[in-house]
Amino acid sequence: MPLQHFLEHLLNLLMAAPVTALMNWIGRPPINPAAPIDGVFTMELLAFLLLLIFFVIVRLSLNVEKPGTAQQLAEMVEEFVTNQTEPIIGHKYRVYLPFLSSILLFVVINNLLGLLPDVDTATASPVVPLGLALLTFVYYHWQGLKENKHKYIQQFLGPLWWIAPLMLPIEIISHLARILSLTIRLFANMFASDLLTLIFFSLFPFALPVIFLGLHLGVSLIQAYVFMLLASIYIGQAVAHEH
Amino acid sequence: MRTTMQNVFMTLSVLCMAVPAFAQAAGSSSNSMVPLAAGISMAIASGLCGLGQGRAVASSTEALARNPGARPGIFLFLVLGLAFIESLALFTFAIILFKVK
């Protein structure tokens, strides 16, 4: 897509020097110092801008009597996330709705932009799902701490005090494995779908690969849904009170 | 018992011969076993993943037919279960992707 390359050039033209300086400073010099911003980052930024524009439009056109198209869309998303997360988190779900909706919309937009030919799928690069998974990890631990205060540690120690030395390492490993599984699930799904379309395109370069684009569309939506669902399950577990 | 142990030790001794032979073959020629291994491991992973997902979908369909009112709960657990089963095959895919160069 020419837009991606145009944006990439523009970003590199404007931001190359400070980004290269920053990457040198943290000890990870970019491969190409003249163009440190790659397509993946450009697509992420594009998704961010699209979401920002959407939210600003929704905010400016809020109307109780005559809801516009953008408001209808936003209400649909809100209703969907509510329906999915309320049974999992419970009646306090409204606090976590902004986070879960943004995760869902960001992943959906990035996945769907990747369907366009000649565009980098941001979520098919391991860095982007890793960032989202780390964000989810930090967020649900923060919310758990905020909700349960010092009792949050009890979730890691198991039901009996003498079993705690065994439970603590197991819990820590399983919580860290959540980052790994969230990352790899999203990344591998999107990468494999891209690869599948590409391989069938190289086998039969006419019309047939469109079927796999359809599959890719389904996978994109389901993976975004699953990511949101898992994030809400983790939040629900973290903020649950022990009875 | 004796014949079993005999068989086991015979197999082990053959394997002792076999390992250096394979190592030499891989070292001297190009790593031609790698695509084969990737293909076989992906086939095992996706085949077993398909079996598991088939079982999950079959029983959830059955549950849905018995009790259509429980649709939201069944759907939630079905999607979650499918995602977890699928991620096992995808772990294999990721390992192949990162280890095979």
How many individual β-strands of chain A? 0
Radius of gyration of chain A: 21 Å
**Any idea of the CATH class of the largest domain in chain B?**
Mainly Alpha
Shape of chain B: flat
User: How far apart, in Å, are the first and last alpha carbons of chain B?
Assistant: 45 Å
Mean pLDDT of chain B: 81
Q: What is the beta-strand fraction of chain A?
A: under 5%
* Helix proportion range of chain A: over 70%
Q: Write down how many β-strands of chain B occur, each being a DSSP E stretch of 2 or more residues.
A: 0
How many domain modules of chain B? 2
Most extensive interface between two protein chains, with residue counts: A-B, 19 and 13 residues
CATH superfamily of the largest domain in chain B: F1F0 ATP synthase subunit C
**Biggest pleated-sheet summary of chain A:** none
Gap from first CA to last CA of chain A: 55 Å
Provide a concise account of the structure shown.
The complex is a heterodimer of chains A (243) and B (101). By secondary structure, chain A is mainly α.
Primary descriptors:
heterodimer; A: mainly alpha; 8 helices; 74% helix; globular; B: 101 residues; mainly alpha; F1FO ATP Synthase; 3 helices; 89% helix; flat
Walk me through the structure.
By secondary structure, chain A is mainly α. Chain A folds into two domains: 1-37, no CATH class; 95-239, no CATH class. Helix content of chain A is 74%, strand content 0%. The radius of gyration of chain A is 21 Å and the shape is globular. With 101 residues, chain B is mostly helical. Chain B has two domains: 1-29; 31-99, Up-down Bundle (F1FO ATP Synthase). Chain B has helices spanning 2-28, 33-66, 71-99. In chain B, helix 2 packs antiparallel against helix 3. Chain B is flat. The termini of chain B are far apart. The mean pLDDT of chain B is 81. At the A-B interface, helix 3, helix 7 and helix 8 of A face helix 3 of B.
